């Protein structure tokens, strides 16, 4: 039975009588309804956040930390209910949904421990100059559908810690677990500090352009990121943009084929490939290309694609119909272009649910759409390379610059290659590891600014320099 969910505005769970359906991508059934909000609800949420900012920004950081830690604990204590709800709206298998919920709780807890201490710029006989960080004010947070809970919490926690208040908009495709968290935390968060409102994509520009919002923190596609930058320019809002990626993994000839095959598979196919930092292009040295590509395809044959709520499912459906059709279109393009498939590429899947068979392409050219574009689905192109110089140039040949990976026994060499990649993160011999203490952000068109760590926290603040002239005569 579909359930109705409410928004959190000014400390109260509210609805407005207009509803949007939320669909389970595994069976296309409506599993919930959430409020379809517009300007009126947004204005109320922003006004509440503005009122709350007056006291929250003056609340001692230790007290703010305590509230954030309570949120972390509430998410953990309710993980069982939350991960099941997350699977039903997002599609990811239970184990991965559990990973997202527990991971979000841990990230929130870890971020609560950060501090932005004052910095002394000068302490001389004549002058004391100090930089302090002051919260920017009311934040507008906009979140995508691939990791809805993690992305919401990685905006809410640092905003709160810095002394800001926030109005957050989940993706219309995946608002349920976030609204359930809103309900669970509402009694521990002072009214107006966190507001969560749902609406169609059209609510996004209203947030970006709202005159009483001071900063936008956005995770989503590069195309939308550009619109946000444009909308936020009217009153020079501060912006943090976490955008798309087309990450390259580079496998050197000394990598252990059997061991690396499984890891490469999951670096591409976790969450059905719908991860901004998934390996979206895999470059394998020609000496091990045949063996490794065969080993990856063999491993993939043992992975079950299905409903994430079923035990044994390794890869769930694509989250929504539009993205499902885009992934099928990219596969069709590869077929029409005559590229070779190591796995998948059969006729279009039919039936209920947005399931795409695991697809692996054998050495498509560099200008193939599946190589040049972000696929955001369970389709992995494997490409052959022969020299380090060549593969670095190919990896960097992208407007994106989010992350990448190098796989090799020679970690010094791995680091040398990493330093030549034009991305914000590079992993050597692992993938998808994000630390709450390290800045995460994209180079080039993958982003603007960073999340996590001290650098992420600073994005919610302005620097203010206070200078005292010690020997002044007044
Ligand atoms: P999207 O850009 O379509 O939507 C993201 C959010 O923006 C949604 O809440 C949507 O309602 C809202 N929105 C849509 N149009 C808007 C507008 N004009 N103004 C303001 N808001 C608007 O992205 P998506 O399809 O939900 O997510 C997939 C994309 O997100 C991929 O490109 C992926 O790489 C990227 N992503 C990036 C990161 C990262 O950290 N860099 C993380 C996850 C996803």
Describe this protein's structure.
With 474 residues, this protein is an alpha/beta fold. The protein folds into 2 domains: 3-243 and 446-465, 3-Layer(aba) Sandwich (Aldehyde Dehydrogenase, Chain A, domain 1), CATH 3.40.605; 247-428, 3-Layer(aba) Sandwich (Aldehyde Dehydrogenase, Chain A, domain 2). The chain is built from 15 helices and 25 strands. It has helices at 39-56, 61-77, 79-90, 94-111, 148-162, 176-185, 203-208, 222-232, 257-269, 286-301, 321-336, 369-372, 388-396, 411-418, 453-458; strands spanning 3-4, 7-9, 12-14, 19-23, 30-35, 119-123, 127-135, 138-142, 165-169, 194-196, 215-219, 238-242, 247-251, 279-285, 304-305, 313-315, 340-343, 359-362, 379-385, 400-401, 403-407, 425-428, 443-444, 447-448, 461-469. It has a 7-stranded mixed sheet, sandwiched between helices. A 6-stranded mixed sheet has the order 10-9-8-11-12-24, with helices on both faces. Strands 1-5-4 form a 3-stranded mixed sheet, with no helix packed on it. Helix 2 (61-77) packs antiparallel against helix 5 (148-162), helix 3 packs across helix 4 and helix 9 crosses helix 10 (286-301). It is globular, with a radius of gyration of 23 Å. The model has no long low-confidence stretch (mean pLDDT 97). The structure holds nicotinamide-adenine-dinucleotide. Residues 142-146, 169, 171-172, 201, 204-205, 208, 219-221, 224, 227-228, 242-245, 276, 374, 376, 402, 442, 447 line the site of nicotinamide-adenine-dinucleotide (NAD). Residues 142-146, 169, 171-172, 201, 204-205, 208, 219-221, 224, 227-228, 242-245, 276, 374, 376, 402, 442, 447 line the site of nicotinamide-adenine-dinucleotide.
């Amino acid at each position: 039975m579909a359930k109705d969910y409410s928004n959190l505005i000014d400390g109260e769970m509210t609805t407005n009588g207009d509803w949007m359906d939320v669909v389970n991508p595994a069976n296309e059934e409506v599993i919930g309804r959430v409020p379809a909000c517009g300007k009126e609800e947004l204005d109320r949420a922003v006004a509440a956040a503005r009122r709350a900012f007056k006291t929250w920004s003056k609340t001692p950081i230790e007290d703010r930390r305590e509230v954030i830690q309570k949120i972390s604990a509430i998410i953990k204590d309710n993980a069982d209910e939350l991960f099941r709800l997350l699977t039903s709206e997002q599609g990811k298998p239970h184990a991965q949904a559990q990973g997202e919920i527990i991971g979000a709780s841990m990230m929130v807890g870890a971020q609560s421990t950060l501090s932005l201490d004052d910095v002394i710029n000068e302490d001389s006989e004549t002058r004391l100059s100090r930089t302090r960080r002051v919260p920017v004010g009311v934040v507008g947070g906009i979140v995508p559908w691939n990791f809805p809970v993690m992305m919401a919490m990685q905006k809410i926690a640092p905003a709160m810690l810095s002394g800001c208040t926030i109005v957050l908009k989940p993706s219309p495709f995946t608002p349920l677990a976030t609204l359930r968290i809103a309900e669970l935390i509402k009694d521990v968060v002072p009214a107006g500090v966190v507001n969560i409102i749902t609406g169609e994509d059209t609510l996004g520009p209203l947030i970006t352009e709202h005159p009483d919002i001071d900063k936008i923190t956005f995770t989503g596609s590069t195309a939308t990121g550009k619109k946000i930058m444009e909308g936020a320019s009217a009153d020079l809002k501060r912006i943090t943009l976490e955008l798309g990626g087309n990450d390259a993994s580079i496998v050197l000839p000394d990598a252990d084929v059997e061991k690396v095959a499984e890891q490469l598979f999951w670096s591409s196919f976790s969450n059905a490939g719908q991860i901004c930092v998934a390996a979206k292009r895999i470059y394998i040295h020609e000496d091990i290309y045949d063996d490794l590509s065969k080993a990856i395809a063999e491993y993939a044959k043992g992975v079950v694609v299905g409903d994430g709520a079923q035990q044994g499912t390794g890869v769930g459906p694509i989250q929504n119909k539009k993205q499902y059709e885009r992934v099928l279109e990219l596969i069709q393009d590869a077929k029409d272009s005559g590229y070779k498939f190591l796995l998948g590429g059969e006729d279009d899947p039919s039936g209920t649910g947005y399931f795409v068979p695991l697809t692996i392409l054998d050495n498509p050219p560099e200008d193939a759409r599946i190589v040049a574009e972000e696929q955001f689905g369970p389709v992995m192109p494997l490409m052959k390379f022969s020299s380090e110089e060549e593969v670095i140039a190919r990896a960097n040949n992208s407007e994106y610059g989010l992350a990448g990976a190098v796989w090799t026994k020679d970690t010094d060499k791995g680091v040398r290659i990493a330093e030549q990649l034009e991305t914000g993160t590079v992993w050597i011999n692992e993938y998808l590891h994000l630390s709450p203490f390290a800045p995460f952000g994209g180079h080039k068109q993958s982003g603007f600014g960073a999340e996590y760590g001290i650098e992420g926290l600073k994005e919610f603040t302005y620097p203010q320099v206070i200078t005292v002239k010690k020997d002044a005569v007044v």
